[in-house]
Amino acid sequence: MQLTVWTYEGPPHVGAMRIATAMEGVHYVLHAPQGDTYADLLFTMIERRSKRPPVTFTTFQARDLGKDTAALFQTATRDAYARFEPQAMLVGASCTAELIQDDPAGMAQAMGLPCPVVALELPSYQRKENWGAAETFYQLVRTLADKTARPAPRDGRRPRANLLGPTALGFRHRDDVIEITRLLDTLGVDVHLVAPLGASPADLATIGAADFNILLYPEIGDTAVRWLERTFGQATVRTVPIGYAATRAFVAEVAAVAGTDGAGIGTTPGTSNLPWWSRSVDSTYLTGKRVFIFGDATHAIAAARVARDELGFEVVGLGCYNREFARDLRTAAALYGVEPLVTDDYLVVEEAIQALQPELVLGTQMERHIAKRLRIPCAVISAPVHVQDFPARYSPQMGFEGANVLFDTWVHPLVMGLEEHLLTMFRDDFEFSDASGASHLGGSSPLPPAGGVGGGPVELAAATEVTGPPLAPPAGGRGTWSPEAERELLKIPFFVRGKARRNTERFASEHNLTTITLDTLYDAKAHYAR
After folding, report:
1. Going by fewer Cβ within 10 Å, which terminus of the chain is more open, N or C?
2. Are residues 21 and 104 in the same domain?
3. pLDDT in tens, 408-449
4. Domain holding 101: CATH number?
5. Dihedral of CA 225/229/232/233: which sign?
6. Which residues are catalytic?
7. Geometric angle at alpha carbon 120, from 232 and 99, rounded to 5°
């Protein structure tokens, strides 16, 4: 384990919490010390759920370690069943409680509770959150599924599909399910079951009655889907419908598996505006913009495809933090000719962004903080996310409407960055000076004196000086920027600032200059303008 300020994934028992919280009629008893009881913060504060997560903690303390902590677990389990009367229970230990080896699984099974009890063995020091969620969902499906369930004869009925993978604390999972359900209805396909989000143990018992499965989030549902394929012989649709082209491919795959007609779906004008917008005049200045992408493997790989093939960006960096999908990430990175980055260390990600100097970052809330410090536009595409990425409005990432959301979310940081640059450019004008009041208020600020601008050069310089944190130091030891050179660099439009910085640092390195001054910046500009 590594002590860190930020982390992309929590321990595996957090993944188990996400499954329990997503479902109905399930309760999770977690053998954990006081201090590990932060489930409420995750789900009611960040995701803004209207009810508390179904998790009971034993909350043993230091003084309890000299006593029988196993008895505390059994008491907590009995009380939780008596109070909540769940259809099924999960039991397990947190990373700290794992060290005292109380065996929650064995104790729960010996108690003879009148409901199915799924014991979780989650190695906290080898695995992480997404793996814990996938393992928990798999164990629930394997335990609760009725092995004799099979699809009913078609006899004119519509085909039925299971939507698998959406969970609590997932990035836009709620809205994705709504969008894909609507799309399936257009295809003539009914949703038999959505799991784990909103499913009960009784629902999971019928999972084998669907004609096929749709795997929306491989990080959560892949292990369970593979078991369903072996046990029930169900086919699986694996195309993740993120982006316009991927949604069209998803429609074709579903139609082929379900035996329905998907021809023409998505081709009607207005179905998705992304294809038209990305070819419009207003988007031409976006073509060729260098983008760095990092997140969970599913969203990162999908984002790279949309960025290059649908928006005309250049992918200069691609990475993910979940090592279980490193092979998929490396295969995708090879398509774009970039070095794959598989790491759970945000400092390594920051170094990569700093070295590549992209014009747009697509990532998690970590990359949002990193990009802000480096003064690079950023859009969030993947968990982990903060409360602002759980909007009250409808905002899917999948399907045709999701393609519209992607376009808006990714393009707006670039557009607003351009607007911010224009405002900075005109700050020297007396009407836009920070020292002047709003012009529409009519006389709220004095007019500039005759023959001068805004009170004279000294006052103007003080009013228009660029403020804020300095630019991050250059990567690779290519010289230190002087404050004057940094301020001048900030006057360059953001969409070419990265190139100007790289060229200047290369010029300084070739001329053995350890400090990049204002003169160095101008000399480099003249050199590369030839």
Report:
1. C
2. yes
3. 899 888 776 555 555 555 555 555 555 555 555 554 444 444
4. 3.40.50.1980
5. positive
6. 282
7. 155
